[in-house]
UniProtKB/TrEMBL annotation:
Taxonomy, superkingdom: Bacteria
Single GO molecular function: enoyl-CoA hydratase activity
Family: Belongs to the enoyl-CoA hydratase/isomerase family.
Species of origin: Knoellia koreensis
Segments passing through the bilayer: none
InterPro entries: ClpP/crotonase-like_dom_sf, Enoyl-CoA_hyd/isom_CS, Enoyl-CoA_hydra/iso, Enoyl-CoA_hydra_C
Gene3D superfamilies: 2-enoyl-CoA Hydratase, Chain A, domain 1, Lyase 2-enoyl-coa Hydratase, Chain A, domain 2
Keywords: Lipid metabolism, Lyase
GO biological process: fatty acid beta-oxidation
Top class in the EC scheme: lyase
One Pfam family per UniProt: ECH_1
Name of protein: enoyl-CoA hydratase
Length: 269
């Protein structure tokens, strides 16, 4: 049988940072398995991302790991080795909800990757808006080497990030890439010193959280909803998000703060 849902979410923790706690750190905390995504961890990740999505005080999310040598090594293949086909089918919606929970966060999400981010672990990172890697990081989608395909969004998200041929190379070969090579391909956004990914991601998140929460959320919504449409449809979506922002209390406060030469105190509505 599949592993039952844990009674505690300690496999995935939420920590708050900064003034007002507007930066949320989503901590992957299964170090004994290098954060391999078991059924229990998928449950925990799905619940944690729902909690963050439902919290209007969250302005940015950083996904981190407690393991110094692994962000996440993907699906727990030791657990899956004992699965029947029926149990694997039963686990599938839980895994999908976990990855979609990261992808569908309404605020910007930043992955802080040090060490290995492989398979589903790299898909968690790809589900974020930005990926910061320590220079010693290793990323890849090696699923075809064990008889499956990326199933946490990797075939779609990586292709959208880097284009068809570069994604084809990574996915069809199952090759692993160091941080610099991954950055050259466009698979990650920024490379920092080894061990510094979390610090840099929190710095970026703090910068984002200082901006209008309504503006940032609506900008992300416009980008996400318009990405796969034609330009005309995308511009209509942008106009809808503009109107939702332009007549908000945040816009009034932002304009007033600019003219009064002070920091805005965002109402967030």
């Amino acid at each position: 049988m599949t592993e039952p849902a844990p009674q505690s979410d300690q496999l995935v923790r939420i920590e708050r940072h900064g003034e007002g706690g507007h930066v949320a750190e989503l901590v992957l905390d299964r170090p004994e398995a290098m954060n391999a995504v078991s059924t229990a961890m998928a449950h925990a990740l799905g619940r944690a991302t729902k909690e963050l999505a439902d919290d209007p005080t969250v302005r940015a999310v950083v996904v981190t790991s407690t393991h110094p040598k692994a962000f996440c090594v993907g699906a727990d293949l030791k657990e899956r080795n004992s699965f029947t086909d029926e149990e694997l089918r039963a686990q599938r919606p839980l895994a999908q909800a976990a990855y979609r929970g990261v992808l569908d966060l309404p605020v910007p999400a930043i992955a802080a990757v040090d060490g290995y981010a492989l398979g589903g672990g790299f898909e968690i990172a790809l589900s974020c808006d930005l990926v910061v890697c320590g220079e010693g990081a290793t990323v890849g989608l090696p699923e075809v080497t064990v008889g499956v395909i990326p199933g946490g969004g990797g075939t779609q998200l990586l292709t959208r990030r880097v284009g068809w041929s570069r994604a084809a190379r990574m996915i069809f070969t199952g090759e692993r890439f160091g941080a610099a090579a991954a950055a050259d391909l466009g698979a990650v956004d920024e490379v920092v010193s080894a061990g510094a990914a979390r610090e840099r991601a929190l710095e970026l998140a703090t910068t984002i959280a200082a901006n209008s929460p309504i503006g940032v959320r609506n900008a992300k919504a416009a980008m996400r909803q318009g990405y796969d449409t034609d330009l005309s449809a995308g511009l209509r979506i942008e106009d809808e998000m503009w109107a939702s922002t332009a007549f908000s209390a945040d816009r009034a406060e932002g304009v007033a703060a600019f003219n009064e030469k002070r920091r805005p105190s965002w109402p967030g509505r």
